[in-house]
Amino acid sequence: MQEDWVGKRAHPRLDVNLPVHFGLIDIKGRRKLIARFSGETMDVSMRGLGIRMNSGIPQMIPIATKLMGDKKKYDLKIGIDLGGDEILAVGEVRWSLLEIPHQLKMGVFIKDMGHEEEGKWTSFIEKKYRESGQKTGPTVRAIESIQTASNHLDKASSRIFQQMKTYEAKQGK
After folding, report:
1. What is the pLDDT of residue 40?
2. 139-154: per-residue pLDDT in tens?
3. Which of 16, 47, 120, 129 would bridge with 137, disulfide CB 3.0–4.6 Å?
4. Residue 116 within a domain
């Protein structure tokens, strides 16, 4: 299942190991922390990360079916240690792989991050892109900015078109 996502990623991953801790939060708006786990990243990108757990797996197994698919009940509230500076994010598990008995791996899409955290994360990732020699980080962000602007223009054009139709209908009466 993990390989299915590799070709669909919007952002290239970087091999970076960072300590993480995470808890399960109810997706129905009650952001109560259900359980706590720890692990490390296997890789990171602008909007995602791979997490590896080496402990706490027996406690995670009964919950794992509620992290994805039709039975999904939980997202992850993630604390990522950037070398003394921790940032918090909310993530959605996109894939998981249990390598019995010692390891659980998860691919996590970052759904939400505070403004300050997002700035720190972006700076961290861009630094890692530069160190790795990859030039795709800023390019991907530029493409996303163009797509976002295009979406805003589409919505604005649609509103203007509707206003023109309303105006013309009123003029015709």
Report:
1. 93
2. 555 656 666 677 678 7
3. 129
4. yes
In this prediction, residue 162 has a pLDDT band, given cuts at 50, 70 and 90, of confident
Any domain includes 141: no
The strand pairing partners of 80, in sequence order, are 20, 87
The whole-angstrom separation of Cα 86 and Cα 11 is 22
Tell me which amino acid residue 161 is: F
Q: What are phi and psi of 12, to 5 degrees?
A: -65, 145
User: DSSP letter at 53?
Assistant: E
In-domain check, residue 106: yes
Kindly report, residue by residue over 66-98, the tens digit of the pLDDT.
788 887 888 889 999 998 889 999 999 998 888
Contact 135, 129 (CB under 8 A): yes
Domain of residue 51, residue span: 2-132
Phi first, then psi, for residue 42 (nearest 5°) are -95, -35
The number of distinct structural domains making up the chain is 1
Contact partners, residue 108, CB within 8 Å, separation at least 6: 48, 49, 50, 51, 76, 78, 91, 92, 93, 94
The CATH number linked to 112 is: 2.40.10.220
